[in-house]
Amino acid sequence: MSGPAPPPPPPPPPPQAHTRSPSHFTYPLQTFQSTTDPITYVVHTSYNPASPPPLPGPSSEWTRFVCISDTHTQTFDVPDGDVLIHAGDLTGTGRKEQMAITGDWLIGMRHPVKIVIAGNHDLPLHDSWYEIPDNKRRFHGKRIENSAEVRDILTNNHAKAAGIIYLQDESYTFRVKEGGKEWSVYGSPWQPYFGNWAFNYRSGEAQALVANIPEVDILITHGPPRGILDLTIDHSRAGCPALLRHLGRMANPPRLHVFGHIHEARGALVHQWDPNPNLDPQAAVSTVDREGWKETIMVNAANQPAGAHRMSNQMRVPFGGPGFQPIIVDLLDKP
Ligand SMILES: [Zn+2]
């Protein structure tokens, strides 16, 4: 039996947009603050990006740190503040054109101070590792980058004039207000070995590297300390035990420690340091207030959606979107 050809099937529906602008999402307010009187910090992990929460007190007494990480060449709106902190993985693989995109984005932000470190993806910034032919060829084939040119994007006079400070295992001090508090910061791009990326250390090398970290107000490392916002999607702890031990032994651990690397563990908490060094350091993670214990605000600032919160209402969350927004940390300018 033959007849007219059947009508063609209807065209498939147009593909669903995979991303929506952040205004299409809802942003429940998620905030915590110190239990002291007066308060000394406020942390915002979720907020309306169109109207970020105000400082908790006068700007003469408070400093706003805006924390981002793992932006991997993507750009998005970042709230204003006094200090921008980028905890590494500025790019996909550290190509010069990728770093130029990130550099232009950072330069365009209005924060007077922008402290930036590298991560395992910013390959040419780890000069001695990138010089090894197998390493650079594995990621960049025949088109090899020049480490100095890639770094120059973050360190040239144009970047400096825009407030960018690139730290690679070094300290820096700065003021954001005339006559205001001087803040000390240390930045380090390293993380425990996995698959021979840039700035990977073996466990035997960890102690020597973390021993360089001095007592500062603000610590920035690409990788987390072991047990703190470091749980991977396959339920392993990817943070560095030597880093946790080193910080736990400090008389004055940092007030704020910003890292990234484990995208799916993005978030913030307050870690209380057990004064008894014999105790298992992981047992010290707690929200219970312990009188007199030193505290560090821990921020995993990863902005690339990963893990359980990658989707929202069937829609792919964009970089910096709900669950992966820049984390705002307001600190009282106490000594
Ligand atoms: Zn990353």
Short structural description:
The protein is α/β, with parallel strands linked by helices and 335 residues long. The protein has helices at residues 96-108, 127-130, 133-140, 147-155, 157-161, 203-210, 241-248, and strands at 30-33, 41-46, 62-68, 83-86, 113-116, 164-166, 170-174, 183-188, 191-192, 200-201, 218-221, 256-259, 267-273, 294-300, 311-312, 315-316, 327-332.
Written overview of the protein:
The protein has 335 residues and is α/β, with parallel strands linked by helices. It has one domain (22-332): Purple Acid Phosphatase, chain A, domain 2, CATH 3.60.21. Helix content is 16%, strand content 22%. The strands form 4 sheets. Strands 1-2-17-3-4-5-6 form a 7-stranded mixed sheet. A 6-stranded mixed sheet has the order 7-8-11-12-14-13, with no helix packed on it. The chain starts with 29 loop residues before the first strand and ends with a strand. Residues 13-20 have low confidence and may be disordered. The structure holds zinc ion. Zinc ion (ZN) binds at residues 70, 72, 89, 119, 121, 261, 263.
